[in-house]
Design brief:
Layout lengths: L7 H21 L3 H7 L34 E6 L8 H4 L6 E8 L11 H11 L3 E6 L5 H15 L8 E4 L3 H4 L3 H17 L4 E6 H6 L3 H4 L5 E5 L14 E8 L8 E6 L36 E7 L2 E6 L7 E7 L9 E6 L3 E4 L7 E11 L5 E3 L7 E4 L2
Parallel strand pairs: 1-2, 2-3, 3-4, 4-5, 5-6, 6-7
Antiparallel strand pairs: 1-8, 7-8, 9-10, 10-13, 11-12, 11-14, 14-15, 14-16
Helix pairs in contact: 5-7
Length: 389
């Protein structure tokens, strides 16, 4: 706080008040000590909260300085792109853990991350909890198995404190069928799990929403790490344990930019070992969820076309928390021609449509269970279509 400037008159009044207090203190039972006990005097301090740091209450904040609900640890993920890291300096920052890239692709030594060994040594030397990820190029079951063997070869002899993650984001993988992507992910994850390690999937929000098979995203055994860069929050609707919030982080001991992450599970230290004797049913961060029945099938009331836009209205569903809308120039809603929007209202205006093109629309409602997972209607509404002006 700023100190006030008193005039001569004000100083005289202060002197009078002090005299009165001194002469009456015996009657009032008032003293400097009791005053200090009763009133905590403010001290001068800065209101500035460092983005992605902690506030005065020790809570992690986002890029806007707002509390990140549920965040318990702050971490980084690193690879050879960060070059030589001074882990002694990193250990003295607010970074609580690291996820280290061990390599990429098949089980070939030339595809080991060339800074893997020294990054692991740095974490082990300075007591920084760490986990592992591998960048996947797998487009076949055989390659996924080879990538699992790649990781297991490199982590042998090390105590990991965070899961082993399978990084899926290659365009070639996006072009595969849903079933093959699912089988590739499951092949890797089951191989790691069979070796006794916690494991999971890393992907960006678009992949989680459109390319990661529901058999993977709904499997509570696998950990989920979501990349979504913004200053506010992760908006993924499913269960996840880690959010990669930015690639523009700065940390003492690292030259240049580094990815920042927040962990939402119990705090882990170097004494936590992810290798277990038997497979558990679910990660410790998950909780038993109350069963929620799926909403009823939706009914679209109207589709009103406009100039390069359409307004879709539908009937409200009781207890629904929101609605998912798909629109496409394909009757079969093929992935490449289909887009998705969500809203909590019973109508939506979709803009930037192509003139003189026929668009098809369908809607689902969703509820939210106690784990914040979205439970959708089992079937889409009947399809409505219109030719845009």
């Amino acid at each position: 706080m700023k100190k006030e400037n008193f005039g001569i008159v004000n100083k005289m009044w202060v002197l009078v008040i002090v005299v009165l207090l001194c002469t009456t203190s015996g009657f009032l039972g008032y003293s400097a000590e009791t005053k200090a006990d009763a009133i905590e005097m403010p001290t001068e301090q800065s209101d500035t909260v460092e983005p992605w740091g902690k506030n005065a209450q020790g809570q992690f904040v986002n890029g806007n300085g707002e509390v990140i609900s549920g965040a318990t640890m702050k971490g980084i993920d690193v690879s050879h792109h960060q070059g030589v890291i001074d882990w002694s300096k990193v250990a003295n920052t607010d970074v609580d853990f690291a996820i280290i890239r061990c390599g990429y692709g098949d089980n070939i030594t030339s595809q080991d991350d060339r800074y893997w060994t020294q990054n692991v040594a740095g974490c082990e030397t300075y007591g920084i909890p760490f986990g592992v990820y591998i960048y996947s190029y797998a487009t076949t079951i055989e390659q996924a198995q080879s990538e699992a063997e790649h990781v297991l070869r490199l982590v042998n002899g090390h105590t990991l404190n965070f899961p082993i993650y399978f990084d899926m984001e290659e365009t070639a993988q996006a072009n595969l069928s849903d079933a093959l992507r699912r089988d590739i992910a499951n092949t890797f994850l089951k191989a790691i799990d069979a070796a006794g390690y916690e494991c999971g999937i890393y992907a960006n929000l678009n992949w989680w929403n459109n390319y990661i098979h529901s058999d993977i995203s709904n499997n509570l055994l696998w950990y989920k790490w979501v990349a979504q860069y913004n200053n506010s929050a992760c908006t993924y609707g499913g269960i996840y344990q880690m959010w990669q919030c930015t690639s523009d982080g700065t940390v003492d001991g690292i030259n240049g930019r580094v990815d920042l992450n927040f962990w939402f599970g119990a705090v882990r230290t170097r004494s936590y070992n992810i290798k277990r004797a038997v497979t558990v049913e679910a990660p410790a961060t998950t909780t038993t969820t109350k069963k929620v029945t799926a909403p009823k099938r939706m009914t679209i009331k109207s589709v009103k076309k406009g100039k390069k836009k359409a307004v879709i209205r539908w009937k409200k569903i009781s207890a629904a928390k929101g609605y998912k809308i798909e629109y496409s120039t394909s009757k079969k809603f093929t992935k490449k021609k289909t887009k998705t929007k969500t809203t909590k209202k019973t109508k939506i205006t979709i803009k930037k449509l192509k003139s003189k093109k026929t668009y098809y629309f369908r809607v689902k409602a969703y509820k939210v269970d106690s784990s914040k997972k979205k439970i959708y209607s089992k079937k889409w509404s009947k399809v409505k279509h219109t030719k845009i002006k």
